[in-house]
Amino acid sequence: MKRDPNLIPKKLLKVAERAQVQLEMLPADQRVAFIKKKSHIWRAFKRHLRAMSYGKCWYSEAKGPQSPYDVDHFRPKSEAQRSETVKDEGYPWLAFDWDNFRYSAERSNRPSTDEETGEVVGKSSWFPLVDGSPIAIWDDRCTKNEVPLLLDPVCRKDVSLIDVGSDGRMRPSITCVGTGKKRVKASIRHYALNLPDILEARQDVMRDVNDRVETLLKSIEAANSFEEAADAIPVEDQRKAITALTMPNSAFARAARAKLIEKGLAGLIAPPEDYPAIVA
């Protein structure tokens, strides 16, 4: 996605800034209630965040009008679950900071049960840190020094740690090692990336790409065998249709790209200069 403050109305940014000023003036025991009272502020950012990712969930790449979406606080605003037994107040000072907002499908953001394993998945208030990481608090907001266990979809380095396997499941990328693998494993669970319905949708995209590639290769073979009729064979249209599936506005585009790379056809992946413009 392309995070761009110019896509957000200045008036809305000002509203968030005013709420932040009010929050800073409150005693600790009044902050949570104030944040809850002002929930309409971050919800007002939803359509602008949606535009930045072409309507896709920032965590899962899911896209569709039948999937409810939330504005998630990457760093939880009022409670951070660090482990099964440890929680703290989280990051209340980031409640109105749009840099902390992530456009998320409910399946990634809210607790649900994996139908296959019975495991509870979904980010909710989970925000564990890598062992040894400093922890930011109200009086020492050292978030830049923290090392979250969960991958951040707006951090390119984090995104490079995870990839789509040939079976459609999300997995560590080939260069992901050590602590990175632990982070990917935790992210797959808490973002619910391999739930059966999401996995099936990802696999559908990969099958579609595979079928289209087979059709394209047959068309190329036919065009080369019958040169007098080559211009009538829709090779270019077929190529464009495949490339469109790798565009950032397509659901599960990473799965489409992974299938093309697997087949040795990375040249069919859409280059960034061809990406569609974002419309606020």
Widest sheet, order of strands: 1-4
Number of strands: 8
Distance between the termini: 13 Å
- Strand content is 5-15%
Decide which structural class fits the backbone. Answer: mainly alpha
- How many DSSP H or I helices? 10
What is the alpha-carbon Rg in Å?
Answer: 22 Å
Sheet with the most strands, sense and barrel status: 2 strands, antiparallel
Helix fraction bin: 25-40%
Run of helices and strands? HHHHEEEEHEEHEEHHHH
Shape: elongated
Low-pLDDT residue spans = none
Overall mean pLDDT stands at 95
Short description:
With 280 residues, the chain is mainly alpha-helical.
Break the fold down into its secondary structure elements and pairings.
Elements (H helix, E strand, L loop, with lengths): L9 H15 L3 H10 L1 H5 L2 H7 L16 E5 L6 E2 L5 E2 L12 E5 H4 L2 E2 L6 E2 L34 H4 L2 E3 L5 E3 L6 H12 L5 H30 L9 H10 L8 H10 L18
Helix pairs in contact: 8-9, 8-10
Question: Can you describe what's shown?
Answer:
This protein has 280 residues and is mostly helical. The chain has helices spanning 10-24, 28-37, 39-43, 46-52, 106-109, 156-159, 179-190, 196-225, 235-244, 253-262; strands at residues 69-73, 80-81, 87-88, 101-105, 112-113, 120-121, 162-164, 170-172. Strands 1-4 form a two-stranded antiparallel sheet. A two-stranded antiparallel ribbon has the order 2-3. A two-stranded antiparallel sheet has the order 5-6. α8 (196-225) packs antiparallel against α9 (235-244) and α8 crosses α10 (253-262). The protein is elongated, with a radius of gyration of 22 Å.
